[in-house]
Each structure stands twice: as structure tokens, then as C-alpha cells.
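Troubleshooting entry. Yesterday's outputs looked truncated, so today I'm pasting the complete records for two proteins to confirm everything comes through intact. If either block looks cut off, that's the bug. Protein one:
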Amino acid sequence: MTHSHKIAFLFLDEIHHVNHFVSVAVALAEKNEVHILTYPGKHSYLRNALQKLQGEKVIVEELKTLPFRAFTDKLKKRELPRKGFWLKKNMKYLLHNFDALIFTDFFHRYVLDARHNKTKPKLIKFTHGTPGRGYTFKNDMVEFDFQLLPGNFYKQLLEEKNLLAQNYAVVGYPKLDAVQRKETPDFFSNNKPIILYNPHFAEPLSSWHLWGLKLLDWFYHQNTYNLIFAPHINLFEHKGGASPETIPEKYFKAEHMHIDLGSEESVDMTYIMAADLYLGDVSSQVYEFITTPRPCVFLNPQQIDHAKDVKFRFWKCGPVLTAVEALPSSLENAFEDFNKFKSVQEHITSENYYTEEGSSPSQRAAKAITAYLDTTSL
């Protein structure tokens, strides 16, 4: 028998988390009371996403942080509250009002510690991107009561690393539901191939800090390709530490270059759908790109030994450059030699994302969560 449960998604992060949970929240709200717990703000992207998915039943609830911390956050121009203080302020409410709390990141420990030996609320984990980087194999994974996994590849790796929870479900990738296919804007007034340059924000692995400006300059002076430069949304924020002032104004004005340092279009797959070739380093966005197989070129300025490292599995999808001077010929060859990598991309996609006839990832996730809570509420 299916029961109605009270479930909360915790949203204390940047907007690139939204599409990983919003369609599941809407699906769950059909038979449960669903809240999205967040901090005070406009939340226009979140609210628009709910509206597009007809998520009127989902309750967006804005909860304040500790007053003094809100004051210091404002002084320091923090757009997001510090999670620990926000959770401390609202902990009693979280512990006593919900059957389950759903996280897309690893700040659950505060709740886990406060819950002590009680079994509720259940702590449920979603990914906020396709798993593969070392971050997705944190020991914290086993602390969740229930894991929602996008595909069998991740499930097998978690199992090998003893990080698979006793309770889990492989459901697919809900972001593909949330980002509904739409007509791609015309970013350029010509039919030249579009290259998407999408560097990660973490300096030890990102190509931006060593090669980024050289790449932009090369694209500026050539006339074969259009370029969309849309890095990870955190690259030019505090986490990434890069400064927009380092980018010459002429690149922003060039007709064959489109630069977006962190708008909504950089998180809703608009550029991924528009591009003909993916140019990047370690961002998991490449896994979203290859759901429609297309050429890729990868940048390895640190000359990382990646051949046997599962964390660099995406580099099997195209050539990997260790010298920036190789870019022009590599782009040309990537289009000509794409058939060498097409089957690899298709195989990786099948491993990454579970699919099933007759249901969507969001529907399967909602069904799995409900079934799990039904069982544990007996």
C-alpha cells in the first residue's frame, strides 16, 4: 500500500543543482507533500523550472539562517548562506517535520549527527552531475539511507569501493527530464561549426588557468569555427577564483565568439545542444554532450597519466591534447575521424544512464523513493 509522505529537497547551492532534482520533486508531489527548502531570495530559475514542469504542488519554502550569520553573509557579499549555520538554525524543523530529506551534495553530516540514533528523517542522496570524478566516491556516500543512482556503471564502482548503501535504486538521469528539449537559439549569423569550450573550475585539473587565454586568442584570430565559451558556473566565482577582467573586451565583441561566464543557459544544456564539438577538460558535462554522439577534444595541460584512471573515463571519447599548439589540427581531425569514437561514446552513455521503456528517470526516482519510504514506515 502506498502512503503519502512529507519529503524535502534541500537547495542551498548554485542554480546548476536545480535541474538534477526539480523534475523528481514534481513527480513526487503527485502523491506526496513535497517541499524545496532553501534560503530567502528571488529563486527565479527554480520557480521558472517548476512552472515549466507544472510543479504547482511543490512548496518552495524559504528559511532564514542565524541572524548574525545573515548579517556577516551580507557584509561579505555571500549570495549563499553558509550551510552549517543555516542547518543549525533550522535543524529542529528538519528533524521533526519530514519523513525524508534529499541532498544533491555532501552537507548531510550536520543532520546525521543531530538525528543521533533515530531512523527519521531518512537521508537520500542524488548526484548533481554524471558521476566519474573522485568527488563522487567520497566515503560519505555510505552515510545516506538511500541512494538514487543514474546508471549501473556508478553502481558497480560504488560496490567495488564499498560505498554502495544497503538501500539504493538505479533510475536514470532526471536532468534529461528537467531540461526539456527546446529550439536552440541562433548564436551566430553563419553556418560554421560551433565549438563549445567548457573548462572546469578546479585549478589543479582545469585547462583555463594554463591555456584558457591562449585558446580564446587562437579562436579570435581564426575564421573556420564559431566558439561558445561557457565554463563551469563556478570558474569565475569564489570557488574557481578566475577573474573576468583577465578576458580582453574584444573577445566579448567578436561576432564568431559567444562568452557566457555563468548565466542560466550555461546550466540548462542550451550550449551542449547547440555545439558541434566539445572542447574541455574534466567537466562531467561532456557526458551530457555525448548523449547525442559528436566529436570531442580534451585538454590535458598538466599531462596527467590518465589511461588507466577511471576518473578520466570521459577522455576515451576523443583525442587528448598535452600541447596547446596541437589544437588547430586536432579540431580538424576530430570531425574527420569521429567514427573512431562514436561507438565508444554510445557505450559510455549506455553505462552512465539507465533507461527503460514506458517511464522517465524522474518517474522511476519518485516511485523508488515512495516505495522505500513505504517500507521503512511500516
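Protein two, checking that the full record survives here as well:
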Amino acid sequence: MVERRPLLTLLAHLVLVLGVIAVALPVYITFVASTRSNEDIIHPPMPMTPGSHLVENYRTVLDGTRQGQGSKAPVARMMWISLVSALVIAIGKIVISLLSAFALVYFRFPFRQACFWAIFVTLMLPVEVRILPTYKVVSDLGMLNTYAGLTVPLIASATATFLFRQFFMTVPDELVEAARVDGAGPMRFFKDVLVPLSSTSIAALFVIQFIYGWNQYLWPLLVTTDESMYPVVIGIKRMISGGDAQTEWSAVMATAMLAMIPPAIVVMLMQKWFVKGLVDSEK
């Protein structure tokens, strides 16, 4: 029998409401600012109701026809670059991690454990330690201001490799033997057995890695100097050129709202798989 405690229920709902307000209020303010003129924003107090410049502001930033200081690159181009980068990083990390974990678990070769620990140790290296050598390699290969420069150095993931390895080690040996008896080779066993079994983990990792790739700031800041190759996160920073009077805040806020849309869509579309991949008791 479930005991009813009205006071605890009320308290739980109050905490949830406060949490929603804390998360949603900044987004609402950003949306309101994106529909207002720059004068409304820089002269406080800013009205807290949507204005009449919504279509104008969003069309201006998407086309790259805005006035004022800072970058004027089309936000539509920036979002395309961010989308391509996020997809390549997410898919690349998953594919490489799956293959790496498969090799570490199901193949016997010299220094197999040493290879695993070499991969695992990279988890302990902060980004700052390897970012300058990586930049030097990318620069020497002529990959600055390119899609390859934005994505290739980020498509290997020790964390994902470790997670897939741990999951593959839980697959029963009887399943491996049954596949061998049926005449399945290593890659067929990988494609027809392991990948379907890993679908929920793949979905969860895809959401995490897509958002990771979309929100990249430090690495694109180093490897992109041409406006035509700015991802949207860098574009927002480049639009802010100085004081409030010099920055067209309505355009900045409109760009910020547009930048939130793709990650939100990915999370909403894959929420069920994402949660299942994290809490599935069989994992």
C-alpha cells in the first residue's frame, strides 16, 4: 500500500516548479530579447513580453544582413557547419569506439592489454595538455578552416571505447560459439549480433556526443579564422564586439535561440532511447 503524504507531495512539486523556472527563465528572456529592437534591450528595463521584430531579427541573422559591429557571417551557414561537425564527431566516435572495443575483447594479439591501458590513460589527460600538439599537426597538414580540421581530431573517444568494451565483455560466450557454429565470421558477428545488442548504448552515446560536438568552443576557436567556417557557437562570440551600444544584442539573442534548436530536437526525438541506454538493467 502506498502511503500518501500531501506535504511531501507539495514540497516535491514546489521543488520541480522552482527547477523549471530556473531553467526556463533564461531561455524565455533570450527569446524575448530576440524579438525586440536593440534600443529596447540596451535601455533598461527591457520589456518582458515578446516584441514585433521576431521575423525581422531572425531573417537578418540567417541571411547575414545585419548591421553593427562584430561578425556578419550568415547564421544559416554557421548552423550547417555546426550540424556537419556534430554529426561527424558523434558518428565517428561511435564507429571507432565500437571497432576498438570489438578488437580489444574478441581478438587475441600481442600487447592487447597494453593497448587498452594506453587508450584508458588518455582519459586522465586534460584537453589543455594535448591541444597545442594537436593544433600543430592540424596546421602542418593544412587542415585549418576545413571540416576535417574541425572534426578529425575529435572523433576518437576513450570513454566510449571503455563503455563498449565493458558491455561486450558481458555478452555470453555461448552466443559467440553459436555464431561461429552458424558460420558467421568476425565482421558478420559484429554487424548482426553486437551492433543490434548495443543499440540503446549507441543511441545514448549519440545524444551525448552530438551535443558535445555542437557545443565545441575551444577547438573551433583555434582552427577557424575565416568567417565562412565559423560554427554557430563561435559565431555568437564573434558577434559580441565590445560595449552594449556596439553589440547588436537582438541579433546575438536570435542566434542563441537558433543554436538551441538542433540539440533540443535530438534530445526530444531520442529521449526514450537515451534514457533506456543509461538505465537498462541488462547493461
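Both blocks look complete. Sanity check on protein two: The domain at 75-279 is CATH 1.10.3720.10 (MetI-like fold).
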